[in-house]
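To: structure subgroup
Subject: Chain for Friday's discussion

All,

I'm putting the inputs and outputs inline so they're searchable in the archive.
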Amino acid sequence: MASLVFRLRQLVIVGVLLVAGYFLVLSLGFENTPSEFVNSNRISEEDSNPVKTIILHSDKDIGASKTKSSKNLELNQACNIPKLDINGTEVIGFFKTPAPLKCQRKNSRIEDNWVFVDMDGKLRFTEKRKQASCKIKYLWRKNDEENRFSDDVQIFDGFQMNGSDYATVKCIKGFEKWNSVLWDVNKIAEVEERAKNVSRNPEEKSLNVYFLGFDSLSQMSYRRKLPNTVKFLEETMESVVLNGYNIVGDGTPQAYIPILTAQTEVELPLTRKRYSNANYVDDVYPFIWKNFSDSGYATMYAEDAFNIGTFTYRLKGFRNQPTDHYTRTVFKELEKNPDWNCVGSIPLHRMWFQNARKFMKVYSDIPRFLMMHQSLLSHDDVNLVQVEDEDLTAHLKQMKEEGLFDDSVVILMADHGHRFAKLRETHQGQLEERMPFFSISLPKSLKNTEKGKKMWRNLKENKEKLTSPFDIHASLMDILNLSKIDENEFEIEQDAKNQRSLSIFRKIPEKRNCENAGIEAHWCTCLLWKNALENENDRKLSERLAKGIVKAINQELEPEIKLCAPLKLAQILSSKKLLPDSGVLAYKNVKDNDGFVPDLSGNTHAAFAHYQLKIRTTPGVAIYEATIFYDMLKDEMKLDFASISHVNKFGNTPHCIIDRNYYLATFCVCYDRI
């Protein structure tokens, strides 16, 4: 009995000593902890209040065993892709809902077009204008600046418009007159003949490329302005949106030239029209649509703009018609109308979609390469493109339902983000300009093959990696040459150090950065980690952020406060902030007419940053690592609990909560374990 009492006394003394030692260590700020924490900051009682915290729970219900989300920043990557807020404080004020297009209104002078082209290429008169007298003039391309016209051709309801894809039309009925422009897609016999003469692997059907581009839409703006389209792409089409897609130059040509040639304008022979020795672009550019044409594809290149054409505004344009179907011819006539967004009573974008669909239907028996670029609704306005969201969604839905996407790689993208001056002057606006929308889907017919499964897996894995227009060229070449590629090649990681153009259907290395991707510093959106404890202001903010993290954890613990002790911040072990390269913030505009010489005299200040903090809390000895988004303008941080990692073992410290709420085991210190 005496020995038992003596043993109990020993245990009590040991316990008291352990508790006293524990609090002594706390009072010393862990100065006697292992060497990895020697340089850590001590937290004093005078520290400022925590930053206001917005708590997110994107992965809360998956359990505490999964503490990192694939959506979070991966610190082992050479390029950290910015995670932008669609409602970012700096930019959200620029966006509003536009009024619908007024091409057709009830009780107005605007009525239905008198004549239109149906899907069979026949001209149809509206019921009210059946007795009108109408004539058309067919028109063809003479060169990139001029058209040639036929003589007048009398037409009637049901007339087959097969003389050209394009015509002007004039009608008269009594004292009333009406004129407009007609656009159709007629099958070219030589294109079909060319396709028949190309030998193909009968076991692998050639894939179509369906490419719809838009001007001046960052990924964030595409999601803001075309939400129904994005939903259909992601949920129905299973499109992959490339979150790390980064521009390589200023303006539309610098977006499309690398896609179409794998080179930049300065690497290619001179084509700038103001120079007397300039070349036509088709004489010297190795356009990829020529590769597709040589492989038996029907091709179409369509822009909804004449005055600001990608290859004609600043460049010399094409000597010869570049593709089988080429729309510059018709848009020269369409832009003579006072309202460029409408063709009489029809919104121009609907006509645009209709002829994209018609091209795919007309050549349904041979492979097709279609590249269309739309600029009129988005080039000069950050909001107007929203008017076509429902029409674009309906167009994609119809194409899918009609089976026109069954063997098609479908790409919807933008050339760059908006360059509207005030928006571009903001920190987020700078990053958005460099991060346009890019989505791509593969047909089920491909994904069901062994080769396609590997391509699909790689595409999804590359979603968060740094990619550029150069990579799209390599990807299109993979599509074109798919039957010649051994499926094992899709298992091999590409050489990022020695190859600038990497296919998004093959493995892209984690460590890829802007330098080896061919992206100059002032265009590079990769964020750099910087020590956030080096100066007094950074230290104070880090302390406030750390306290905000602990406060958020305690809010999670509050329902179980009878079981779990509230935590306090004991120590900041490290704090890093992710910011863009100084070259991005300094970029103001370009100094030359061609967009090659950067003006780095800008003084844009960072308005937000990602922070990663490693902290120790008490009671217990938990070490947490958390990635947060800090809005400097609102003095507000956003914390997703999926981005908090408990990086040391918690043992049986949370034993009282594990069976009750396993999610809280990451944060709970049971009272009997203090």
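Points worth raising on Friday:
Confidence is low (pLDDT under 50) at residues 1-47, 58-77, 583-588.
The longest strand covers residues 568-580.

D.
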